[in-house]
Amino acid sequence: MPELRDPVPPRVQMIGISQTFGTTTVLHDVGLSIAPSEIHALVGQNGAGKSTLMKILGGIYPEHQGTVRIDGHEATLSSPRDALREGIGLIHQELSLVPSLTVAENIMLGIEPGRALYGKKTTRDAAHAVVSQVPMLASLPLSSLVSELSTGLQQRVEIAKVLSRDVKVLVMDEPTARLSGPERADLRDLMVELARSGMAIVYISHFLEEIFQSCHSATVLRNGRVVDSGPIEKFTLGSMTRAMLNEELAAEEAAATSRDDRRIAMKPVIELVGVTSARVSDIDLVVSEGEIVGLAGLVGSGRSRVARTIVGAERLTAGQLLVDGKPVSIHGPRAALARGIVLVPEARKTEGIIGSATAAKNMILMALDRGLAPRGVIDRKRSVAAIADKFSGLQIRPADPALEAQRFSGGNQQKLLLARVLLARPRMIVADQPTAGVDVGTKAQIHRLLRAAGADGTAILVASDDLDELIALCDRIVVMKDGRVVGSHLRSELTRQNLIDLMSGAEAIH
Amino acid sequence: MNASVAQHPVLRLLARNNLWVALLVAVIGLSIASATFRNPANLQNILAQNGIIGIVAMGMLVMMISGGFDLSVGAVGGAVAVLAAFISREVGLPAALLAGVLLATVTGLINGLIIARLRINSFIATFALASIVTGIMFVITQGKSVVGKSAELQAFAYGSVFGVSYLFLAFMMFAILTHLVLTRTKWGHWIFSAGANEHASYLSGVPVVPVKIAAFVFGGIATALGGLLMFGQSAIGQPTGAEAWPLNAIAICVIGGTALSGGVGRVSNVIAATILLGVIGNGMNQLGVSPYWQPAVVGAIILAAVIADRAGRSRDSDH
Asked: Mean pLDDT across the stretch A349-361?
């Protein structure tokens, strides 16, 4: 913890910030103050106003009310260019790199050295000068194409890109949503290192535990207002969650985490016997009617592969898949759909949502084959009713089925995907990271939906990075390591710590 | 922020149908400027002359929504006309119609298979097929036109009811059919989703490859109708009669707001774009504009439409 002394003006200070779009006010008189070397968390549900506040800081919304001071002087933030000139750098949730350029070229994009001529070598040298200042960035492969890098490394390129612009205030929007466990720890170290040099960091995350690990202070937003703010010691996990949420959902999540093992009628919907496919081998797995099974494991342990194999998106090279006790071959997601086995994919944007199609079209995509389009003609009356039902049932905002899916927030897109699988009247839902990058409120809602589907007899398989989620949601958790199943345990046998031990292979449970 | 203005239902309706507004403005303007333009016979003529390219554009629309496009509609349209002419003379008109439809359906199927199954870019695939079809046709016909027998088809092509030509009515019927297929059927739905995000569609259980092939078969059927009606107009199958179709049909679709990247397109806008281009071409003739200038004007319209579309889009997402 740095000492925060008074005479030094805050690195960044936002005073009385309000923002209206048309007739809706999304921020009411919000204040925020961050000292040099401070890592400050900004938390709140989707739509609470976090992103809007940060976009004001980034010069994207010049028509706001209120003032922003940087190191005590008033800053004009009327364009992203202005913001960069004031020393404010934003790293967006969706990385904005050019995949076909090298790392060095991406770092120096827009501020390439030299007057008119472009030199690969001078660019590389300039990029090198930037990354060599920070030990954790020094190992970036400057000549590699960005498209060849892992998400974690790509994020470091984004950070290097910001550093090359002499940034004093760094905003990171959901930086860990797509990172694996070790990558997250690295990012944490990197933030500490950057803060030590005097940078003020705004950290937006839905992983509250990370906030307690990394941040010095926090501000909680709800419906565009600051509901709580102060040093991190002032908060607990529970108090922060309650500040963000409405009471009802908070209580339901708390109750679910402490419930006992449910009795499940063991009527298997799907069985994997010695299944081997790309990078997973000899997988045995059973999911019964009404059962929620979790798949735990580190990134690269093969969880997603198993999920994709079940819906036929990966080819079986050995082993047997049984549906309702009968051996079947599922040679593609379409064949899986015919059997009522549906996937909520991990990569929402590229594999899930059809961005330019309306929310309504996205929702009924699977149901078309599951009774909504008899003889190929869409049953308009029923589809309109089903869409309206899901919009209100899942509280999708904005409540406009005719809006393009890409215009919805991440959490609401995820709800659209869940609506898609639920409308397909599934026998089994395979959900890969169903709550990645969504806020606690949406997360609680998604959990409630999955539990409800389970209660109706749907078999559910959830792969997740979030161990608390698995423990809160699942009846049984199957642990994977290096492409193999290393254990299967009832929830009551597990704690967070022994799950971690199992995943990393430290020891087995006795 | 002028969000409240854009929210007004009338303005929104106008913005959504801006091509129809443009068409209305063009018709009114040209009617004031030129007496020959506003002559009802001339207006009827415009509709009649643009029926065939309109039908071809409907096929192109479906293929573009699926994420591709077809440069072979000109070659195939010509081949349909030549084949139909030959068979109408040797066997009879019904067989000629059937053969024409069959030919274009098969070429559509081939295009679709190459593009969806072998994952070849549609520019390359359809350009190659166009060359092959043109080449074969020239070898067989020695580059000459083929005279056919098509009294009934000719009667249709020049017939009209209440002053509206059958050709235009055929275009309207086909447009309505296209609209229904795209908006009311499962496969239509899939054409949009596969064009917009192929991978997500695949993982959702959409039969992406068959859907794309179907889009090209539909395009083939549209081309067949166009080729047969073209043959009907003159009773002659001319190998190069449809040369201008591919780029004209793509231009119409693009003016109509259809995305080259797939997933976006509306039948009503393509109808408006078809008539708009016809009206402007005809209007320029009536005003005595040199034919040499006309391609430049059409090009300017394409650019203006695309830029307006882009501007509208970024305004929409700017919040």
From this structure: 90
